[in-house]
């Protein structure tokens, strides 16, 4: 197969932070002599006590462990704020653009952000939080969300941000799992002109959570919300008398920074735990090199703070690098489809980072809403979250960037902390649809499913053979699950769960998840989670969920449902079940199709054959493969007839 190749534009080749030769030499050093490479890179952070050891890691069962810079101490909030004050205290850190363009924006300098964080850190302490305690943050996209995260980092509390689109049930599960003592939320969130009742959701969730003692409520819309006496505190009241002086806590490099829940192929969501030192070095380094970031440039990552992209590339990476960034509360298609491009013009954004699903949705609206804007400030574009189809890549490149801006397609995961496979724009020629080449320190391998390594060009399971500083350190409360999930499929390696192809030039092409995780609009959903929500409904006997191709979302959710005896599987039940799943997990888990199935295809040992269900959902029934191991092969014909 031949693919378009976009060479590095001359200006980029000459002026980039990392040029082609640098990339080759530094990559080699990073894998051959990681200690010297990382000892130098880690100097990008301010350490309180310098580290003496660098890399102490093993993926093998007998001496399994991941430690980086372990005897060093630092504070990441100080790295994101205090150290910038002398030189760029008055530089704007966050330009906040509200959902409604007619509402006033906010521009917050590093000095102001520092003061907001110090005050809120003292407020957290006054409400019982401290080193090691867990604070759940359930907030809309307002600067106070970042303030809450940095305030936790400042006092050594571990934040757990829960995306504002999750339901009270999903929020409760995440609060219970890490026993948060404090929740930070807002009265309401605003997106696309619609309000989300965040505080009411928290009240609902807390009926099932005994660990929470305090709730701090930021007033976003001013809506009337019930406040529980002795438990609920107004944000403004909490900070009003708080001192603006709050010395940063001295944290060990391996002390936990945050927990972020993510869906896996089995069981309930896992609390991915990231460390302080390694994560700080990794997010700062990748942000600088992948986006070729120079102080003074306006950068915009359009992700939500509830996902890892928001953690790494809105909060920790850019702020550690002293960046000026846009933070956007709203959505790409409201009030109209030019919203993103208008914001780019309004603030002269140079670097823009978003997800393929947003691009595909906007592409469908045609070029007019784009052409109505200038976008002359743009220099670099980025994508993340799912594979980008070459068609969307070309549109992004040709129409949005007018052929002038390299596109950095960044492959990474909640577990990896930051970009793992991504082009450095001044060093690596681009191929639409490929995340290109590995980041410094990243050693990818492709394997057959039996573990045989694939050399050269080929297609297989993507694993990483050695540790990198931004790697997650454990699953909160379940270290054994961490080891079992990631290091046993291919012993001695980190297994990503993704399939991948490598071409003759050594470029990586992520083909998507090969486990039971589906990627809906760049959001990870465990099929098991949706299945357990479905079977929790009184009329459902059994459910199996698979991904299906979806033009905009990348993947859609296709659910096979077997109802209880005596229940009529009709349209009313179908819409009831869709509502039910939204209620149990949140709108992002809304099934796109529900097929009522009299029975599911199972092996004789009772295992559901998902491969067959996937094929039927994809509408590809000509290649169902071997069905001879099914207990009742006739089930398949009935499923094909009933396809939605
Ligand atoms: C950062 C983030 C991780 C999964 C990952 C993969 C998919 C992410 C991608 C990509 C192809 C890219 N993914 N970036 N696939 N190209 N550039 O998205 O983290 O939410 O944990 O999702 O997303 O399948 O395994 P997370």
From TrEMBL:
Protein name (Swiss-Prot/TrEMBL): Acetyl-coenzyme A synthetase
Domain Acetyl-coenzyme A synthetase N-terminal: 23-80
Broad enzyme group: ligase
Reaction catalyzed: acetate + ATP + CoA = acetyl-CoA + AMP + diphosphate
GO MF term (any one): AMP binding
E.C. code: 6.2.1.1
PTM comment text: Acetylated. Deacetylation by the SIR2-homolog deacetylase activates the enzyme.
GO BP: any one term: acetyl-CoA biosynthetic process from acetate
Family: Belongs to the ATP-dependent AMP-binding enzyme family.
Occurrences of domain AMP-dependent synthetase/ligase (ranges): 82-457
Cofactor: Mg(2+)
Organism the protein comes from: Sphingomonas edaphi
Domain AMP-binding enzyme C-terminal: 529-607
Record's keyword terms, sorted: Acetylation, ATP-binding, Ligase, Magnesium, Metal-binding, Nucleotide-binding
Residues with N6-acetyllysine modification: 607
Binding residue positions for ATP: 385-387, 409-414, 498, 513, 524
UniProt function note: Catalyzes the conversion of acetate into acetyl-CoA (AcCoA), an essential intermediate at the junction of anabolic and catabolic pathways. AcsA undergoes a two-step reaction. In the first half reaction, AcsA combines acetate with ATP to form acetyl-adenylate (AcAMP) intermediate. In the second half reaction, it can then transfer the acetyl group from AcAMP to the sulfhydryl group of CoA, forming the product AcCoA.
Binding-site residues, Mg(2+): 535, 537, 540
Cellular component GO terms held in the UniProt record: cytosol
Binding positions (CoA): 191-194, 309, 333, 521, 582
């Amino acid at each position: 197969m031949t693919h378009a190749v976009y060479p590095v534009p001359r200006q980029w080749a000459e002026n980039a932070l990392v040029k082609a030769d640098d990339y080759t030499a530094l990559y080699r050093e990073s894998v051959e002599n990681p200690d010297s490479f990382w000892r130098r890179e880690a100097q990008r952070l301010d350490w309180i006590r310098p580290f003496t050891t660098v890399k102490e890691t093993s993926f093998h069962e007998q001496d399994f462990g991941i430690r980086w810079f372990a005897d060093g101490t630092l504070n990441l909030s100080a790295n994101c704020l205090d150290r910038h004050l002398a030189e760029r205290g008055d530089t704007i850190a966050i330009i906040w653009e509200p959902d409604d363009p007619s509402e006033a924006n906010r521009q917050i300098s590093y000095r102001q952000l520092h003061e907001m964080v110090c005050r809120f850190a003292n407020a957290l302490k006054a409400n019982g939080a401290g080193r090691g305690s867990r604070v759940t943050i359930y907030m809309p996209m307002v600067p106070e969300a970042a303030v809450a995260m940095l305030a936790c980092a400042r006092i050594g509390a571990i934040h757990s941000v829960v995306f504002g689109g999750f339901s009270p049930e999903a929020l409760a599960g995440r609060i219970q799992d890490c026993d948060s003592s404090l929740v930070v939320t807002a009265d309401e969130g605003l997106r696309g002109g619609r309000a989300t009742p965040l505080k009411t959701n928290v009240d609902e969730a807390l009926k099932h959570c005994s660990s929470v003692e305090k709730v701090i409520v930021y007033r976003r819309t001013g809506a009337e919300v019930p406040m529980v006496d002795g438990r609920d505190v107004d944000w403004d009241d909490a900070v009003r008398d708080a001192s603006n002086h709050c010395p940063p806590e001295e944290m060990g490099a391996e002390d936990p920074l945050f927990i972020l829940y993510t869906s896996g192929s089995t069981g309930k969501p896992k609390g991915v735990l990231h460390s302080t030192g390694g994560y700080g070095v990794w997010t700062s380094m990748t942000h600088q090199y992948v986006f070729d970031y120079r102080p003074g440039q306006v950068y915009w990552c359009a992700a939500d703070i509830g996902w890892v992209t928001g953690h790494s590339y809105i909060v920790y990476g850019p702020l550690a690098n002293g960046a000026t960034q846009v933070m956007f509360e709203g959505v790409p298609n409201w009030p109209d489809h030019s919203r993103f491009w208008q914001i780019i013009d309004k603030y002269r954004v140079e670097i823009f980072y978003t997800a393929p699903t947003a691009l595909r949705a906007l592409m469908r609206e045609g070029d007019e809403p784009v052409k109505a804007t200038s976008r002359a400030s743009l220099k670099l574009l980025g994508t993340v979250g799912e594979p980008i189809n070459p068609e969307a890549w070309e549109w992004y490149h040709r129409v949005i960037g007018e052929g002038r801006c390299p596109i950095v397609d960044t492959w990474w995961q909640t577990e990896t902390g930051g970009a793992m496979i991504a082009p450095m724009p001044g060093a690596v020629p681009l191929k639409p649809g490929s995340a290109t080449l590995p980041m410094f320190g990243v050693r990818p391998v492709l394997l057959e499913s039996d573990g045989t390594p694939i050399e050269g060009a080929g297609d297989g399971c993507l694993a990483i053979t050695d540790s990198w500083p931004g790697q997650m350190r454990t699953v909160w409360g379940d270290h054994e699950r961490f080891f079992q999930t990631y290091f046993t499929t291919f012993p001695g390696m980190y297994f990503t769960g993704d399939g991948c192809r490598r071409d003759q030039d050594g470029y990586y092409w992520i083909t998507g998840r090969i486990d039971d995780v589906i990627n809906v609009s760049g959001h990870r959903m465990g099929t098991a989670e949706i299945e357990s929500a479905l079977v929790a409904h009184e009329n459902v006997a059994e459910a199996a969920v698979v991904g299906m191709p979806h033009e905009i979302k990348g993947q859609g959710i296709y659910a096979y449902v077997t109802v209880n005896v005596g229940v009529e599987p009709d349209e009313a039940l179908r819409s009831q079940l869709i509502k039910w799943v939204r209620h149990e997990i949140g709108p992002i888990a809304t099934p796109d199709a529900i097929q009522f199935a009299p029975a599911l295809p199972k092996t004789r040992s009772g295992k559901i054959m998902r491969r067959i269900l996937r094929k039927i959902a994809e509408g590809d029934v000509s290649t169902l493969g071997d069905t001879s191991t099914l207990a009742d092969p006739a089930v398949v014909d009935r499923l094909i007839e009933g396809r939605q």
